[in-house]
Design goal:
The structure is a single chain. The chain has 587 residues and is of the alpha+beta class. It folds into 3 domains: 1-129 and 154-311, Beta Barrel (Thrombin, subunit H); 314-424, Ubiquitin-like (UB roll) (Roll), CATH 3.10.20; 429-586, no CATH class. Strand 26 and strand 27 (536-539) form a beta hairpin. It is elongated and about 90 Å long. The chain starts with 9 loop residues before the first helix and ends with a strand. Residues 1-20, 167-178, 206-212 and 530-558 have low confidence and may be disordered.
Length: 587
C-alpha cells in the first residue's frame, strides 16, 4: 500500500526549480493540411520518446468556440496500437512551436488517427490556476431539488451519477468513442454498476512485481502524471501526459477529467509498466511513483495542476467484524467532490465487503457509522441487510452522502466518514405478518394499543405491541394506521406535504430523524385539504384559493394531502420487511 502521508519527492522540487516558461505556440490560422510535426510521450518506463504526425485538417466549432486538429500519427508502437489511452496530453510541435495536446483517438481504428486540442484553448481555460483550493467555492449543482435527493437517501437509494452529470459529462475521449481509463482495484459487476452511463473504463492494475516501481518520467512536457481519485487500501487513478509547463503550473490531458471546474486531487509522477495493444482501445498500464503536486482545475479543454502543492481528500475508515472471529480495519482517502465522492464511498464499501464476505449462504450484514461535518452534528448511519446484498448497504451510504454533498444551501465540509459492518452467520430478518387493534374507533388524547405479528425466516411467530398516541390535534374522521419497516413506509410517501428545508442543518436533522430498516414503525396518517406556498403549508384555506395555489406547490392538482399525526417505533435490531395498513375512525 502506498503511504497516505504527504511526502514530496526531491524530483518535484527539482522540477519546480528548473521548469522553464512555455515554448512559442502556433495558432490555428497557421495550420495547413500536410504539415508535419513531432509529439512527445512515454511508451515504456519513464523515458520520453518522440512520435511523428501529419496534419489532416482542422475541425472548427466541434462545440461553441472549440476546435480539433485531426492528425495521422506514426512512430514507436503506434502502427500496432493506434492512438493509446494515456497519450492524452502529449504535446505536439511543428517547427518548434507548440500546436496543442493529443487528446482523442478513435475506437477500433485501422490506423493511428487522432485529434489535438489547440494549445490556445487550453491556455484560455486553464491559465488561472488557484494557488490554494477554496472550500467556500459556490455550489454548482444539478437541477435536482433538495426534497428529491433527501427522499432518495431516506429510501436507501442513490441518484445515478450519469443523471447528475447530464448523461456523460465525464471524459472527453468518449466523444471519439473511447472510454477514459481508470486504473486501480479490479471492480466487480455491482461496483461498476454504480458508474453505469458514465464513460469510464475500469482497468484492474495493482502494483506489479519486478524491479521496484520503475523509473518516474520527468515533470516536463511529454512526461506521465497520475491523478489519484482514491488512495489507501484501495486505489483508483487516471493517468495522462503533461502538455505544457510554466514555472509550477502544468497543463495536462487536453480533455476533462470530470469537467468539474475547481478540484483538489493528488498528482503523482508516473511510469509506464507496459503498453497494452487492443483492437478496441489500446492503453498504457501506468503506475504512480511519487507525489509531486495537486490538480486544481478540471475544464473541457484539459486539466491543470501545481507542482509542490498539497491536496486535501476525504478520510474514510471501514471496519469489518467477521462473525466475532476476526476484525479488519481499512483506511482510504477519496476525492472531495459533490458529485463523485458519494460514488467513491459506495464503491469502496461494496468492494471491501465483496472481498471479505462470502457470496453465498445465510449471512446478515449490519452497518453502524457516522459522517462528521464541520459545524454540524454527525450524521448517524444505521442499516441492516439480511440477504448478503452488499450493494444495498453501499446504496444506503452513498445516498446519505449524496444528500449532504448535493445540498443546495452550502458546501458541506466532510471531516471524515466512519463505517463499521458486522457479518453474522444467520439471517436476522423479520417479516410483518399481521396487524390488529382491539377497537376500530379511538378518541383524541388516548393511547391505542396495536398488536403486531412478527415472523422470522424459519416461520416462527411472535407478537409485539405498539402504543400509538392519538394526539388532540388529530381531526375527527377517518385515519390510516401504517405499520412497516422504515424504507417501505418512506416509499409510500406517508406525509405528502412539502418538505421545509432552509439550511444544511435542516438536512442533517432530517437525515438523523429518518426511518431505518432495522426497526418497525407505526404511523397514524390522515388526509386533509391544504396547499403549499414556497414550501410552507397553508391550512384551512377556501377551495377557490386552493385551486389557484395548487397542492403543496403543484399548480395542476388540488387534492387531499396526507400527513403523519402520530408515530411510534419498535426497535428490533434486525432487518424488517413488510407493510400493513388499517383503517381507523378518530372521535
Amino acid at each position: 500500500m502506498r503511504p497516505l502521508t504527504k511526502i514530496y519527492s526531491m524530483m518535484a522540487f527539482c522540477a519546480v526549480m528548473h521548469a522553464q516558461s512555455g515554448p512559442p505556440i502556433m495558432s490555428l490560422s497557421e495550420l495547413r493540411p500536410g504539415m508535419k510535426g513531432q509529439g512527445r510521450t512515454v511508451f515504456k518506463g519513464g523515458k520520453i520518446e518522440r512520435f511523428d504526425f501529419e496534419v489532416l485538417g482542422v475541425q472548427r466549432n466541434v462545440s461553441p468556440g472549440s476546435s480539433l486538429i485531426w492528425v495521422r500519427a506514426s512512430g514507436g508502437p503506434l502502427a500496432d496500437t493506434g492512438i493509446i489511452s494515456g497519450m492524452s496530453g502529449s504535446p505536439c510541435y511543428i517547427d518548434g512551436k507548440l500546436v496543442g495536446a493529443l487528446s482523442r483517438g478513435i475506437a477500433q481504428e485501422k490506423e493511428p488517427i487522432g485529434a489535438i486540442t489547440p494549445i490556445e484553448e487550453m491556455l484560455e481555460q486553464l491559465r488561472d490556476i488557484p494557488d490554494a483550493f477554496s472550500f467556500k467555492t459556490p455550489l454548482i449543482l444539478p437541477k435536482i431539488e433538495a426534497p428529491k435527493v433527501l427522499k432518495s437517501a431516506m429510501r436507501g437509494e442513490m441518484i445515478p451519477l450519469a443523471e447528475l452529470l447530464g448523461g456523460g459529462a465525464i471524459g472527453a475521449e468518449a466523444v471519439a468513442g473511447m472510454n477514459f481509463p481508470v486504473f486501480g482495484t479490479e471492480l466487480g459487476p455491482e461496483a461498476k454498476a454504480l458508474w453505469q452511463g458514465v464513460p469510464l473504463r475500469f482497468i484492474g492494475s495493482g502494483a506489479l512485481s519486478g524491479n521496484g516501481m520503475g523509473e518516474a518520467s520527468p515533470m516536463e512536457p511529454g512526461g506521465m502524471v497520475v491523478i489519484n481519485l482514491l488512495q489507501g487500501d484501495m486505489e483508483m487513478s487516471a493517468s495522462g501526459t503533461i502538455s505544457y509547463v510554466s514555472g509550477k503550473k502544468m497543463l495536462l490531458f487536453g480533455h476533462p477529467l470530470f469537467n468539474l471546474g475547481p478540484v483538489d486531487l493528488p498528482m503523482w509522477s508516473g511510469t509506464v509498466a507496459v503498453t497494452v495493444p487492443s483492437y478496441n482501445n489500446s492503453f498504457k498500464l501506468t503506475q504512480a511513483v511519487a507525489p509531486v503536486g495537486a490538480l486544481r482545475l478540471d475544464r473541457n479543454s484539459g486539466v491543470a495542476g501545481l507542482l509542490g502543492a498539497e491536496a486535501k481528500m476525504v478520510s474514510l475508515r471501514v471496519g469489518l467484524n467477521l462473525g466475532g472471529k476476526r476484525n479488519l480495519n481499512f483506511k482510504f482517502e477519496v476525492m472531495d467532490s459533490p458529485f463523485v465522492t458519494p460514488n467513491l464511498v459506495a464503491t469502496v464499501l461494496l468492494q471491501t465487503l465483496n472481498t471479505h464476505i462470502r457470496g453465498q449462504g445465510f449471512q446478515s450484514l449490519s452497518l453502524q457509522g457516522n459522517i462528521k461535518l464541520a459545524g454540524q452534528s454527525p450524521i448517524q448511519l444505521e442499516c441492516m441487510v439480511a440477504d448478503l446484498n452488499a450493494g444495498r448497504l453501499a446504496q444506503y451510504v452513498g445516498g446519505i452522502t449524496q444528500a449532504i454533498t448535493l445540498n443546495p444551501f452550502e458546501k458541506a465540509t466532510i471531516e471524515g466518514i466512519s463505517l463499521n459492518v458486522k457479518a453474522e452467520e444467520r439471517l436476522d430478518m423479520t417479516l410483518i405478518a399481521g396487524v390488529r387493534t382491539l377497537k376500530a374507533r379511538a378518541k383524541r388524547g388516548e393511547t391505542l394499543p396495536v398488536l403486531v405479528t412478527l415472523q422470522n425466516i424459519q416461520g416462527v411467530r411472535e407478537t409485539a405491541t405498539f402504543n400509538v398516541n392519538i394526539p388532540p390535534s388529530a381531526k375527527p374522521g377517518k385515519a390510516t394506521l401504517l405499520v412497516g419497516d422504515g424504507f417501505s413506509l418512506l416509499a409510500t410517501d406517508p406525509d405528502e406535504r412539502a418538505i421545509d428545508l432552509a439550511s444544511l442543518g435542516d438536512m442533517v436533522r432530517a437525515l438523523n430523524g429518518s426511518l431505518r430498516n432495522n426497526h418497525a414503525y407505526s404511523l397514524l396518517v390522515q388526509s386533509q385539504p391544504g396547499a403549499g406556498l414556497r414550501g410552507s403549508r397553508i391550512e384551512g384555506i377556501p377551495p377557490t384559493v386552493s385551486n389557484l395555489l395548487g397542492s403543496d406547490g403543484d399548480s395542476t392538482t388540488n387534492r387531499l394531502q396526507r400527513r403523519i399525526v402520530s408515530r411510534a417505533v419498535l426497535p428490533l435490531e434486525r432487518e424488517v420487511r413488510g407493510l400493513v395498513s388499517l383503517d381507523l375512525e378518530i372521535e
